[in-house]
Amino acid sequence: MHFINTLDEFKTRYDLAKFMEYTNNCYDVLTSYVLENISALEISETNVVQTEEQRPDLISYNIYGTTQYWWILMHFNAFINIDNFINSVNYNISSITDLEDMYFSLKSLERLNSLDTIVEDTVDTMTIVHIAGTIITKEIPTGLIDGINQAYLLQFTPISDTDEVYLNGILQQGEGNDYTLSGRTIIFTSAPFVDSKILISYITT
User: Fold this and answer.
1) What is the DSSP annotation of 159-193?
2) What is the rounded distance in angstroms from the CA atom of residue 156 to the CA atom of residue 40?
3) In 3D, which of 45, 64, 61, 58 has the Cα closest to residue 87?
């Protein structure tokens, strides 16, 4: 079954195409561990559909500030059709923190179970290696958050392309966009403001 597709980049973090096979003009929900885990998330709040928001995308925007969670709201509430969101109907929501924890854990499992390839320079053959490691979640790096310091130290060295850096709850882009990873050191392009919150999840050997 599919965890999260880590091979392709998608504009939207919660794009359905990441989580399940698309065949015969439809998504195969039976191939997704993600949907199983969404159903198992804890209920953080129960709300009532208001007259002006009888669409899952509008409710997603009002709650989370983005429309991308519309299908998650539907699946979490076992709503088959968008018409289920009618005035005065109760619906449950999960916290973004629980959703992100699930997302990173499943993405890490996808990477741990994926096959990486190394092409040897001296021979025209391909060596297959299995990635294995320990998942580190929500580590607070060492470093002074004073609006000047840009470098922060991790406890372990991340495996390449497994790091996820959150600054004040917002996922940062690596490879020099928002930060650069050098060994155990995270170097931000711009120094985080005073009292900023930095959390880093990654896989280490």
Assistant:
1) PTT--EEEETTEEPPTTTTSEEEETTEEEESSPPP
2) 31
3) 58
Q: Find the range with the poorest average confidence among 5-9, 35-39, 175-179.
A: 5-9
Which residue, 31, 10, 18, is CA-closest to 71? 18
Tokens found for residue 128? 């297959």
CA 3 to each of CA 38, 107, 162, 176: distance values in angstroms, whole numbers, following the listed order: 12, 7, 15, 28
Taking only the tens place, the pLDDT of each residue in 109-149 is 666 655 343 333 433 443 333 345 678 888 899 999 999 99
Mean of pLDDT values over 76-95: 87
Contacts of 106 (CB under 8 A, 6+ apart): 3, 4, 33, 34, 37
What is the CB neighbour count within 10 angstroms for residue 188? 19
The secondary structure element, H or E, covering residue 24 is none
Indicate the SS3 state at residue 201.
strand
Of 9-18, 30-39, 43-52, 92-101, the range with the lowest mean pLDDT is: 9-18
